[in-house]
């Protein structure tokens, strides 16, 4: 079980095969590129309605690799009470994900935000599933922009 006193961040989407795994891989790449100690960070992803142990989609794997991330060994994980208690910050791609967690896991409600809220906005990151590689790359660029612009807030909220 990860230590709660570390920086801990969980990215959440629907099935944990596209957006949240890409966000996880890109965030870890960001930490490495900016010389953060990975031992002090617990970064993971999950899906509100994920089937366990599925791979990331081929386009998600390709997109992450192109941007310096690695999803080759990704295995989908469903949001659960046990999982949520290990994270200080839970970043959702859509408002439905945020509502799902707040309704079903009220003990985690104060730690749940839309990812876009990290840059002071309120918009959803649309699911590229079934789309072209270009659509995945556009989604990944959107994720990276929020990470870079919102890193200070993410860092602050991910450690308690």
Question: What this model shows, in words?
Answer:
The chain has a 4-stranded parallel beta sheet, with helices on both faces. The protein is α/β, with parallel strands linked by helices. The mean pLDDT is 95. It is built from 5 helices and 4 strands.
Task: Detail the topology: elements first, then pairings.
Elements: E1 7-13, H1 19-33, E2 41-47, H2 58-66, H3 81-84, E3 89-92, H4 95-104, E4 112-114, H5 133-157
Parallel strand pairs: 1-2, 1-3, 3-4
Count of individual beta strands: 4
Helicity range: 25-40%
The largest beta-sheet arranges its strands as 2-1-3-4
Low-confidence stretches: none
User: What is the number of helical segments per DSSP (H or I, 4+ residues)?
Assistant: 5
**Structural class by SSE content:** alpha/beta
Determine the N-to-C terminus distance.
17 Å
Q: What is the mean pLDDT? A: 95
Instruction: Specify Rg, calculated over alpha carbons.
Output: 14 Å
Quote the beta fraction: 5-15%
What is the N-to-C succession of helices and strands? Answer: EHEHHEHEH
Q: Major sheet, described briefly?
A: 4 strands, parallel
Tell me, what's the shape? Answer: globular
Task: Tag the structure with descriptive keywords.
5 helices; alpha/beta; 4 strands; 160 residues
